[in-house]
Amino acid sequence: MELSKNTEGVLFDIKRYSVHDGPGIRTTFFLKGCPLSCWWCHNPEGISPVPVLSWHRNRCIGCGRCIAVCPEGAWSESDGGMVRDASLCRGCRICEERCPTLAIDFADRKITLRELVKEAEKDIPFYDKSGGGVTFSGGEPFMQPEFLLSCLRALKEREISAAVDTSGCAPLDYLLEAAEYADLFLFDLKLADPREHKKYTGVSNGLILSNLVRLDEKIASLGRGGINIRIPLIPGINDSEETLKRLAGIAAELATLTGVNILPYHSIGKGKYRDLGREYKMEGILPPTEQEVERALAVFASRGIKAVKGG
Ligand code: SF4
Ligand code: SF4
User: Distance from the CA of 124 to the center of ligand 2, in angstroms?
Assistant: First the structure.
């Protein structure tokens, strides 16, 4: 496959030597944009498909250059120091250019298909040694479907294993086409009840669950690949026995299930919400205790599924 210079995507991060995004050592590309807005998202900078300003207050020296250059009046100074009104920002990025301390950044990077493949190829020795490869995450990678599919095709031709970490909230055709090239889907399940799902993620789960079934059928028909279910465990939101039983029931129906990962909620992303000027809705919710994680694992074990913590 000729790598077109013009096929271009937008990332908000690249993580090398990752051991949590699929088997072995991986290079994870985080694609920008997501149709969900989960309360607990630890990559909120990846939700918007367009660039969004992050203000890192700890780097700000209060020089006031941003006030002077912003055409929208988004910056001001009060007795307490610098103030930013995120709702006024139109994303011209002038303040990012002028800020002397890199306190302002937009956390996005355009990348061509050719550049991405080159980045992935740098880590081939690690993939070969560990059984790893490339993972596409986000955001929701299917928000940039043409770019994602081009990347998957190109990597397959180069015999680089690829995984896609998805919410499943995407047009079915894209998922089915991706199954032709990807070796693994990391499929996120959050809640079984559609109303609860809408409340906490912004969308219902009807499409997600029907896509999961169809994707499973497709992978089974191909005779290669698989689906790894990933469940964030969040006290008070999805850790009731009833919810976990329903999620275990969904996983148990999959013919191509490779495993279930229970990912305990953490608040590491909290500071990013402040940097972005976004509301953090998880205030006061603590990570699950070891006993709560064990209890969740036991629910899956009772359905004959070996679930593991983390991953
Ligand atoms: S330009 Fe940068 S360092 Fe100066 S006040 Fe604005 S954010 Fe702070
Ligand atoms: S990027 Fe936003 S905050 Fe910065 S100068 Fe432009 S409009 Fe103002």
Answer: 40
**71: Cβ below 6 Å to ligand 1?**
no
**Residue whose CA is closest, atom 2 of ligand 1?**
99
**Ligand 1 pocket mutation, candidates 55, 58, 63, 67, criterion most atoms within 8 A of CB:** 63
Express each pLDDT in 95-134 by its tens digit.
999 999 999 999 889 999 999 999 999 999 999 999 999 9
Point out the residues of the chain with pLDDT beneath 50.
Answer: none
Domain of 192 in residue numbering reads as 8-49+108-309
Verify whether ligand 1 is closer than 6 Å to residue 102 (CB atom): no
Which CATH number characterizes residue 181's domain? 3.20.20.70
**2 domain residue, yes or no:** no
CA distance linking residue 264 with residue 244, whole number of Å: 13
pLDDT given at position 107: 81
CA dihedral 109, 110, 113, 119 (to 10 degrees): -30
* pLDDT at position 4: 62
pLDDT the model gives residue 6: 65
226/174 Cα distance (integer angstroms): 16
**Residues linked to residue 166 through DSSP beta bridges, in sequence order:** 187
Residues 99, 114, single domain; the answer is: no
